[in-house]
Description:
Oligomer: heterodimer
Number of helices of chain A: 14
Radius of gyration of chain A: 26 Å
Radius of gyration of chain B: 24 Å
Strand order of the largest sheet of chain A: 1-2
Strand content of chain B: under 5%
Number of helices of chain B: 14
Helix content of chain B: over 70%
Helix content of chain A: 55-70%
Shape of chain A: globular
Structural class of chain B: mainly alpha
Number of strands of chain A: 2
Largest sheet of chain B: none
Structural class of chain A: mainly alpha
Distance between the termini of chain B: 37 Å
Amino acid sequence: MAQAAAVAKPPAPPRRRRASATPRRLPYLLIAPAALLMLGFIAYPVISVFYYSLQNYNPTKPWRNGYAGFDNFVRIFTDDPLFWDSLVFSAKWVFVEVGLQLLFGLALALIVNQTFVGRGLGRALVFSPWAVSGVLTSAIWVLLYNSQTGITRYLADMGIGSYGTSWLSDTSTVFPAAIVADLWRGVPFFAILILADLQSVSKDLYEAAEVDGASRIKQFWHITLPHLKDAIILSTLLRAVWEFNNVDLLYTLTGGGPAGVTTTLPLYIASTSVESHNFGYASALTTVAFVILLFCSLVYLRMSKFGGENK
Amino acid sequence: MSTKVATKAAPAPAPATPEPPRPAGKSRRAWDEAPRWQIYLPLGIYLVFTLIPFYWILLFSLRPAGSTSLVPWPMTFDHFEKVWTERSFGIYFQNSVLVGVVTLVMTTLVALAGGYALARFNFRVKQVFMLALLCSQFVPGALLLVPLFEIFAELQMINSLGSVIIAETVFQLPLSMILISNFIKNVPYSLEEAAWVDGCNRFKAFRIVVLPLLRPGLIAVGSFAFVHSWNHFLFALMFLNNQQKQTIPVGLNTLMGADSVDLGALAAGGIIAAVPVVIVFAFIQKWLITGFSAGAVKG
């Protein structure tokens, strides 16, 4: 055997060269499909959004189309209360939603990371809402919140609350109601990501800490949390961006109402472009949203010192 | 042959070494174990929160209209029949399956090729490309609807499922590619080199040596793409005007019209929408966690 290997070794270098006969072009060929798709369907649309933002562009009023300069942007910042309202709601939504998701997701991940009887089934059950998202989540919670036959009716039967109230059509309850619905599918997502990272913490560290007499809370604070730091920073950022951009849930659950109190900036943009056909103005709003998102992300990464000392 | 076997066997014992001190979970170790009630109580509460909505939708889909019973008895399948035929969920279902499966295949193949290039080569535009992948995460799909609509109109693809498939694939690609390239980086390069020495060309070496090791990662990425395209709503809503071409989430949305809601139909439609993804999820749940853990973006 050893002899055979020794004989086989000498011709290896030329073969290796042949195996990667086109090393120059190969990586470009491999990324070409992805690059072309992204150029055509992400980069080009982004550029055209920037272009439209400087235009008056409304297909239903072609006689008023044309170059607008910065008029759209001036109008956003000086003459559009809806923009500010939706921006404030977006910030509130993302902040509360992602904060709670992180908190509960971390707790859930720590729990299902333990060994206990029925762990496989328990994990599958608590994670299952992750697979169910957007419109389906709305459908489920529309049923639960229905004023006639929803959960409020049964709560009222038990003497809690009153009959005929719908949490989704009352401006004072719609925010928590929507938050709970989104938590239902968001917490499992966070828990899965954090659990994945938890599994790579070396058991030896806990063993050593135990020998030194550290309590479990101290172990969590000094071993688990520092280890999870980068994963938490990154998943929080990604989730915040997704929660900001996502329109499926709120569009179908509340439609931005009642009285527009749950209109996020992307929902406002969607209604400006799809319903009012005001593409130029919607594009300007999109540009502003994009810049805000990018700015917040950079500030967040800088403040959280992503990568930290390890880098 | 001998070289290949030797290199392949080498990494195997490495993960096995930490195992011995833990014989089959028998000896419970006190230091990282919480008291039982600290596990079961919060988990139980969370489980109730998770399962009530599922139970609720099942209840509404199975009990006759007008019933207020909390047990779906007598059971009826009228709602399903009505939704499947009258509300054309049968057609929506076919369309959604088609979109989901083709998106899965396209995303996996394109991301696999790109991910391999990113993991194994250094080339001139690599940094720029990586940066573009990251930046694309900030581009909100919903906000690009207008230009995308115009592109598809130009390509004569409005009202064809192809437009939705392309859009879903493109927005799945960046993350899938990053994940896959991380999975590939975790496969030792020496395994591939050994296969070349044994006379495989690059493609064959990849197929025989690397691909089997990527299975958990590919399952994670593929299922992610399927579930996302199955659930996603906005592209289908915008690019498909023909009712016969719609997908399930759009069908669900039409059932949710304002106040005149047929709750039984909505619930039955919801069950139909949930079943494929929940089944997919039940099978891949384990791989998903290992997959993400292996592909996690580290430092």
